[in-house]
Amino acid sequence: MKQQLHIVGGGMAGSEAAWQAARMGVPVVIHEMRPKVETFAHKTGNLAEMVCSNSFRSDDDEQNAVGLLHWEMRAAGGLIMASADAHRLPAGGALAVDRDPFAETVTERLTALPNVAVSHEEITDLPDEGHWIFATGPLTSPALGDAIRAETGTQALAFFDAIAPIVYADSIDMDQAWRQSRYDKGETEEERTAYLNCPMSRDQYDAFIDAILAADKTEFHDGETATYFDGCLPIEVMAERGRETLRHGPMKPVGLTNAHRPDDKPHAVVQLRRDNALGTLYNIVGFQTKMKYGAQTDVFRMISGLENARFARLGGIHRNTFLNAPTLLDDQMRLKSKPNIRFAGQVTGVEGYVESAAMGLLAGRLAAAEILGHALPPVPQDSAMGALVHHITGGAEARTFQPMNVNFGLFRPVDGLRGGRRGRKDRYKAYTDRAKAAWSAWLAQIELDAA
Fold it and tell me: Domain 5-159+322-450 is in which class?
């Protein structure tokens, strides 16, 4: 009987790892403690449940690094991207998904495979034998976290993630809000009108900032310290950095024209993005928060069009634990002190659904190849996947290591291209062209070796 691959955690990374390994012919057991053991953020027992945003961010594979990562995952037959595409929602140039059907599809497709089993129990230690991938994500259980710290001999590295609230669509006042994607981006009318926009005058904005700063916030436990990931800063943290910070961030008014008053330029705009296929739910874009629930309803109802808003979910904050991967993991994503164990997903120090699933894809393929007795060729560093895994397993400075989204700053320069903003379009296109060629060649080599 072939050796099994055990995967701890059924989120984005664990689900993608299981799919890739199973499709290579390796028996897989997914150990997912939900719903037997619940977490703060999860609501179901489905695999790949989305707990924060419903967005996979930009889908532009020529000018955006995360869009390029989408392309590479699709080329590799990724389950996460196929399921996201199947449940895509209008979101301008972004890839947003209907979160519940998305997770249901991932769960159904994985459990339909004859060599995949799901075991609902909590794993609390690091086994000495067998082939394992730990993809427990930002909500690694306290017991397992203690086991990881005991093995690695390091203090827990952590930051805080915040969740944005979700509003019932029928409670939004469309006499004040209007439908438009920023700069009318999108190839169809549905894409060009994917967002709801709520305008604010200068006086409304100033009062809103005052209310955010004065609102009651969730306090951390005694002795609990961590930084925030810059891509998910709570709005109150942004407001504390300066009164104009939000207006130049998620509330920027550029690229939008008020359909009700075209000549009235808003001082700031709050955008909401559709959160489900029915269009009954919208999330407030960029409005992660640690305000207490009562304060949230009071503050958010100050927004034009949301005066009578009803909330399907209010915002929240949770701790995200990650490894100092450059110190602890080898270039095969194995734990150096226990090479029978690989790590994948956010716990490795990548940030975002797409990056987590991408590291799951690699970990699943690497582990399956090892079990089957043939090593994979090195992941090409010029691909988005390779640039990201190189960063976390050695390219980053261990002393200052922090979670990272995929970005073109991780890519090796292309010779002969102009630097600066004016050369950016040509430079990014050169990065993506080179990456696609490298990734396609790598996939072709794997198929040739397996034949």
Answer: alpha beta
